[in-house]
Amino acid sequence: MKEEQKNPIQGPKSKGIFSKKWTFPVMYMGAAALILAVIMWYQDSSQFSTGQEDAVPQVSMDQQQEQTEPADLASTQPEAVPVNQTPQGLAWPAQEDLNVKVVMKFYDEEAADDVKAASLVQYEDTYFPHTGIDLASEDGKTAFDVLAAADGKVTKVEKDPMVGYIVEIEHADGLTSIYQSVDDLQVAVNDEVGQGDILAKAGRNLFEKDLGIHLHFEVKENGQSVAPEKFLAQKEEKQAQ
């Protein structure tokens, strides 16, 4: 019985491990290594995700504005073109010092009724709006030289049974000048003429026979008949300046 009391039952051996001096330092170092590994893994994953974002170049607002705006803004803007610009202007189609005047005006839809009535051409029992202006001498019997209103190219020279000989000249800016009721032609198709060159002489025609010897002068802008005074007035204003 005494021998049994000298050898009591021993507890678990694990208790002896924790009693060692090196146990806790080892555990601390292992935990520290684990935490360090987790931190390094997190940093690597963050760098990977941000690295993809850095691959796309970042453009500042100023750079975006520079890219969207043309380098030379003035070169991209269309040049301003003045409305109804006539660089040279239209001169009167007759010598100005001659006693030649307008005997019939252009038919204007917006004019007063009495003005519109005076701009209708009567042929037999029908009235036609006048598409130009008619110039004649005081007596309606004197022929005068018909002059080119501006530089251009002759595109038509022909005789019409109603309005007599016709001369058409194309000018810049879509303008065409037309000269009807003329004789003694001095030009041919494809001739280049200058402002003031003699084209023909005023004559007679069947359509406006009551006017005697006269010139029917017409202006078309892009193929549409317009009041010649619109362009002849511009010429007068330039001379007045």
UniProtKB/TrEMBL annotation:
Keyword Transmembrane helix: yes
Keyword Acyltransferase: no
InterPro entries: Cell_wall_metabolism_enzyme, Dup_hybrid_motif, M23ase_b-sheet_dom
Signal sequence residues: none
Highest rank taxon of the organism: Bacteria
Ranges where the M23ase beta-sheet core domain occurs: 129-228
Biased composition annotated in UniProt, kind: Polar residues: 60-76
Keywords, ordered alphabetically: Membrane, Transmembrane, Transmembrane helix
Residues spanning the membrane: 21-42
Pfam families tied to this protein: Peptidase_M23
Region (Disordered): 53-76
Protein name in the entry: Stage II sporulation protein Q
Source organism: Ammoniphilus resinae
